[in-house]
What does this fold into?
Amino acid sequence: MIRPFEIFVGLRYTRARKRSHFISFISLISILGITLGITALITILSVMNGFGKELRGRILGVISHVTITDTGGALHDWRTVVGKIKNPHVIGRAPYVAGQGMVSFGRSVSGVMVRGILPTEENQVSEFGSHMLEGSLDALKPGEFGIVVGSALAWKMNLTVGSPLSLVIPQALVTPAGLMPRFKRFTVVGIFKMDMFEYDSGLVLMQLDDAAKLYQMGDQVSGLRLKLDDLDSAPQVAQTLADGLGPNYAARDWSREHGNFFRALKIEKTAMFVILLLIVTVAMFNVVSTLVVVVTEKRADIAILRTLGASPQSILGIFLAHGSVVGVVGTLVGTICGVLLALNVEPIVHFIESLFSTSFIAPDVYFISDLPSDLHWSDVILVSGSTLVLGLLSALYPAWRASKVQPAEALRYE
It folds into this structure.
């Protein structure tokens, strides 16, 4: 146990004398190394959190948080199912018809995913309405066979609002000439841009009734899409809804559809934490070497303290307190710098870009123009706690060596 006496003597040893300026210089370098390591750790983890949050928000702006389907493959009366959903976390509901097809315009063709929607209901569960470059979802009228396409698909096929677009679906039509693929001519009534290439190039929207007629589903739909007020509660809500609706219905949450992607981000964040923690560990080696030199220099002082009645445990506590100062100061300064930098990453990056007339993140390549940052205090606590533990461990061996100094042997040549 470290008492005030050990702390007082340990802090006295941190003040440099004329003959120990070099030791103080090494201590200062150790503090700077710990500070830089913690600052880099907190900032990079916050940037990775920001990218994960940005990607999750964009993906969940297209897909549903929870999807309700019938085990038979089609939902017969979706309005009845909506009436059975009483969960307080559900804040939006919308039916959909899903299918696959191939669109063609002139000599250009492309495979797409087709989604039939009700524009008024779709705004409750997705963000297509707020990401329209041209036209609007309200232009999708039943019976008019309008279609909304993504910006990448429109660019690839040279489409604009008003362009005729043929859709071929993988269902056979029996004719006197034999089996023929079914197709329908649509008119482009809108172009959206979600800044996700997967959806901007491979997803088209049409009115729900038109999609049901095209895929011969009658008054049925493929399922019901739900939006929640808390994304993290999706697995629990999906399980609750599945139990409440009965065995004829299935509920699937967003983490099942894109779980591997977000798990990969989490693993990458963990690996980055371990790698960057090595920077702090290298700085701790300087702490060990500094304390070893201090113990060697203070052998006479240690012997005098022992003859005055100090126990080996007291000597151990003195040098633990002395060694912990470097870790505590470096951790405190590094944490403050890391938090301030993480909270101001975007303006700092903008200033550097304007100063050097460059762009670190090309929006046409990454679909993100800013460097996002999302500070999690749990990360700050983890980084700071790990550094303090490393600082304590680095002081253990030199302090133990100091406690083993024999007074008679140390004072023999003094």
Residues 21-60 form the longest helix (40 residues). The mean pLDDT is 81.
